[in-house]
Design brief:
Length: 60
């Protein structure tokens, strides 16, 4: 009995190419607030909705 081998071409996988190294966005200080004793620092990564809620609670 003869074994017939099927020949298949070899195909290279395509690797995802990375663009130039991207730096993460800077987390900039937006607001520094001191009322009485506590000090609050708000950074750009903070969700604006959360920042507004916190400011309302602290300033009222």
């Amino acid at each position: 009995m003869e074994i017939i081998e099927k020949q298949q071409s070899i195909v290279a996988f395509s690797h995802p190419t990375r663009s130039q190294k991207t730096r993460p966005l800077r987390n900039n200080l937006l607001l520094s607030l001191k009322k009485n004793d506590p000090e609050l620092n708000f950074y750009s990564s903070l969700d604006p909705e959360i920042m507004n809620k916190l400011l309302k609670k602290v300033l009222l």
